[in-house]
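Incident log, support desk, overnight shift.

02:14 A customer reports that sequence design results differ from what the structure should imply. Their input is reproduced verbatim below. On-call engineer (initials T.W.) acknowledged and began investigating.
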């Protein structure tokens, strides 16, 4: 899959992480990348929420395990409840499949490990801004296993999908954004959103990434 083009405008970023050295490293990385601009930083989820509501950034980089106040998942849930037009990516040391699934189901657009190569991390963040959900390459297998185990507990019937919904699932498996799916299938982007909402409900998934990984494991890619 070709990398997405550079964003058409500067991306305003808020970093929420309670590790000062790591936070400083992320800020330096963003400062060295022309189309990213850090507009705020916070060392607790509570302060991060306050800044997010005030600054309304394009992108939030959020630590998962913070010792004071709200943890990453609780912070993520609060931010999702605020209905901000903001992409949220988890940056963490945890490769626990349950943490990964919890974050994706809570609405994270990405889940990246802190030891991700800087250039690769910037590439992933660019993808997120173009509507793709990303996870560290080493965790794809973990998510697939977690979803497989979950499927054993939950009845999923691919036959319940319409032909159009099945086509959209295959597009999700290719990592396409809503805009690209609409272009691929020759339909409106708003129609794509409706179909995705319906197929997620039918398959009992909480996010498009879960559906995408499930589709790959079903051999639809």
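02:41 Re-run completed on a clean worker. Output:
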């Amino acid at each position: 899959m070709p990398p997405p083009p550079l964003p058409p405008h500067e991306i305003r970023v808020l970093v929420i992480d309670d590790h000062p050295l790591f936070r400083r490293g992320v800020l330096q990385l963003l400062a060295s990348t022309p189309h990213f601009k850090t507009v705020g930083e916070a060392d607790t989820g509570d302060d991060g929420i306050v800044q997010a509501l005030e600054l309304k950034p394009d992108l939030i980089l959020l630590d998962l395990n913070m010792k004071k106040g709200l943890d990453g998942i609780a912070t993520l849930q609060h931010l999702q409840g605020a209905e901000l037009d903001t992409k949220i990516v988890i940056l963490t040391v945890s490769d626990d499949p349950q943490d990964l699934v919890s974050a994706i189901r809570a609405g994270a657009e990405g889940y990246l490990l802190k030891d991700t190569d800087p250039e690769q991390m910037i590439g992933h963040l660019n993808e997120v801004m173009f509507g793709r959900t990303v996870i560290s390459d080493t965790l794809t297998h973990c998510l697939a296993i977690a979803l497989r185990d979950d499927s054993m507990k939950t009845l999923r019937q691919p036959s319940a999908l319409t032909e159009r919904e099945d086509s959209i699932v295959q597009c999700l498996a290719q990592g396409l954004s809503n805009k690209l799916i609409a272009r691929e299938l020759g339909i409106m982007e708003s129609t794509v959103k409706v179909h995705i909402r319906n197929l997620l409900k039918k398959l009992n998934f909480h996010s498009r990434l879960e559906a995408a990984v499930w589709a790959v494991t079903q051999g639809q890619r």
